[in-house]
Amino acid sequence: MSIKVRIPTPLQKLTENKAEVEAEAKDIRELIEDLERKFPGIKERLCDEKGALRRFINIYVNEEDIRFLEKDNTPLKDKDEVSIIPAIAGGAR
Fold this sequence. Notes:
By secondary structure, the protein is of the alpha+beta class. The chain has two helices and five strands, in the order ββααβββ.
């Protein structure tokens, strides 16, 4: 099973400057573990010390926000596309 994962620019230094990588997983939690095996250090950027997704990281499966699905238990299937998007804050008043 092959999942396409879009990597945001700030994390691409961990993925050998690749904007897209392939992973194999049955859910988001497994996907993060697979990414960590292939690209050590990426998990600590995505998850806190307890293993929960960091609040400022948004993950989409086929353009659907996992917060409105099953969060890190969201199931994955072959050919799914996962986007990792860091939240952006700030601006001028």
